[in-house]
């Protein structure tokens, strides 16, 4: 990949897990009542057809990794588990009161923080509490994020018995210097042990998260990490670009300086090298950041054209409604988004008053819905088309959009057809930049300060 292209397109840009992106939500017109209305509408339209998805955020971690951009609370006090689980179940019941039939659960994901901070008994209480008032969809998919340093056989077995068949482990990088810099010392043996245990118990998809662009990371480290990954051959891999977002309050990313980070060019070379090595091992790239073996459901879904992207990243099936429970979780009713308060104390306070603990959100208008569809198409299948009969937004008639797309076409990133665009192989690493051309909210109001991580 040419240095000129990297220099030109490495700008701050959204990762498009939603459209509109969170900084562009219109919070002034948002209300909890409207959010509930859009959710009830979506639930009625889709529950019986495809079911709903649940994301549950479990924020506690025993130790702080200094690269981490997730919402977490560091503590060694396990007495926090029980009140938190009670609060999540209370939130679930507040949602259940809105519906006149039992939710059909198609997908359930436990994210964090560290879900395996919680004891298997408490995780059992949580899942049974959720499922007591719900029905399971056919081919339901339950998954969770495990920390290789504290995932035990009991965790894996308990969750497997509850219906979990997919787990992903945070690996990041195997090199000791990098691990020390990010305050996450985690020997290969721990990952090997957790991966093998999961397989032995019967998990059908084991994933690893690895990251490029970390402090002190060089090409040899990326190679070493992928060679070790090859030994364990996870079914799925997230190969994330390190998102350096030190302005997020309390994320503790200041344990190293900017000078310790690889340059944009080295970062892109790390990605290219990683991609090449992963292809040699048999991994196929899925949209942005993700790789899977041919046998994994994510790959099969991409082949079928049913890949979907939401706040959890890429998923193998689409549901119109996704409810996020727990502190900081985001919910998506397709017609609206909402986010829960980020502080655990605020979360408890609102729930104690029987209030769904949402603090901000966005209700989508007609224009948002059209753009959302195109951005989703681009992120999931690298192409999108518009019909002059249905869409009232003609992207090729919007001078700004057309100008940006034409320039990208000249750079070989995409092909423009009469009513569609297709991203080329060369353009795939720049898909976020291409989505930005469609993002009319961003075009109309460029941020004054840096809101997003760099696209490369
Ligand atoms: C919630 S953690 C995974 C579960 C568990 N807490 C652990 O660390 O093993 C989710 C994943 O997000 C990714 N992640 C967190 N912060 C990131 C950042 N700043 N840039 C890129 N990826 C990040 C990491 O790969 C991490 O494994
Ligand atoms: S990477 Fe995982 S364990 Fe580390 S602080 Fe973030 S959520 Fe916690």
Structural notes for this entry:
- With 456 residues, this protein is α/β, with parallel strands linked by helices.
- Helix content is 38%, strand content 21%.
- The chain contains 15 helices and 19 strands.
- A 9-stranded mixed beta sheet has the order 9-10-8-7-6-5-4-1-13, sandwiched between helices. Strands 14-15-16 form a 3-stranded antiparallel beta sheet, with helices on one face. It has a 3-stranded antiparallel beta sheet with strand order 17-19-18.
- Helix 3 runs parallel beside helix 4 (120-131) and helix 5 (153-161) runs parallel beside helix 7 (188-201).
- The longest helix has 19 residues, at 32-50.
- The chain is globular and about 60 Å long.
- The relative contact order is 0.16.
- The structure holds S-adenosylmethionine and iron/sulfur cluster.
- Residues 61, 64-65, 68, 70, 72, 112-114, 147, 170 line the site of iron/sulfur cluster (SF4).
């Amino acid at each position: 990949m040419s240095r000129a292209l990297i220099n030109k397109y490495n700008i701050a840009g959204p990762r498009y897990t939603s459209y509109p992106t969170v900084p562009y939500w219109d919070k002034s017109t948002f209300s909890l009542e409207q959010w509930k209305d859009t959710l009830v509408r979506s639930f009625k339209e889709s529950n019986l057809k495809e079911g709903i998805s649940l994301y549950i955020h479990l924020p506690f971690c025993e130790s702080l990794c200094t690269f981490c951009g997730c919402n977490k609370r560091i503590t060694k006090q396990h007495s926090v588990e029980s009140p938190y689980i009670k609060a999540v179940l209370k939130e679930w019941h507040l949602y259940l009161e809105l519906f006149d039939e039992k939710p059909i659960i198609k997908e359930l994901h436990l994210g964090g923080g560290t879900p395996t901070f919680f004891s298997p008994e408490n995780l059992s209480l949580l899942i049974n509490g959720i499922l007591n008032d719900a029905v399971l969809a056919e081919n339901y998919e339950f998954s969770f994020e495990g920390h290789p340093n504290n995932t035990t056989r009991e965790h894996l077995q308990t969750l497997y018995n509850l219906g979990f068949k997919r787990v992903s482990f945070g690996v990041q990088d195997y090199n000791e210097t990098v691990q020390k810099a990010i305050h996450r010392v985690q020997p290969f043996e721990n990952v090997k042990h957790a991966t093998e245990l999961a397989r032995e118990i019967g998990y059908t998809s084991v994933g690893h998260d690895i990251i490029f662009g970390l402090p002190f990371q060089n090409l040899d480290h990326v190679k070493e990490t992928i060679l070790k990954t090859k030994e364990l051959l996870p079914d799925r891999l997230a190969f994330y670009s390190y998102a350096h977002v030190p302005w997020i309050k309390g994320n503790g990313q200041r344990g190293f300086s900017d000078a310790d980070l690889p340059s944009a060019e080295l970062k892109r070379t790390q990605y290219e090298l990683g991609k090449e090595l992963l292809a040699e091992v048999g991994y196929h790239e899925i949209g942005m950041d993700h790789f899977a073996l041919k046998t994994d459901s994510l790959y099969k879904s991409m082949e079928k054209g049913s890949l979907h992207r939401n706040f959890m990243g890429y998923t193998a099936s689409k549901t119109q409604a996704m409810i996020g429970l727990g502190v900081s979780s985001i919910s998506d009713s397709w017609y609206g988004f909402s986010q829960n308060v980020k502080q655990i104390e605020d979360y408890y306070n609102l729930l104690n008053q029987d209030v769904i603990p949402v603090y901000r959100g966005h209700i989508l208008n007609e224009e948002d819905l059209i753009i959302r569809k195109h951005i989703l198409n681009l992120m999931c299948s690298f192409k999108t088309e518009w019909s002059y009969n249905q869409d009232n937004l003609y992207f090729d008639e919007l001078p700004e959009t057309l100008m940006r797309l034409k320039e990208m076409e000249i750079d070989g990133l995409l092909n423009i057809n009469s009513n569609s665009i297709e991203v080329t192989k060369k353009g795939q690493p720049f898909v976020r930049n291409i989505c930005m051309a469609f993002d009319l909210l961003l075009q109309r109001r460029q941020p004054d300060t840096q809101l997003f991580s760099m696209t490369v």
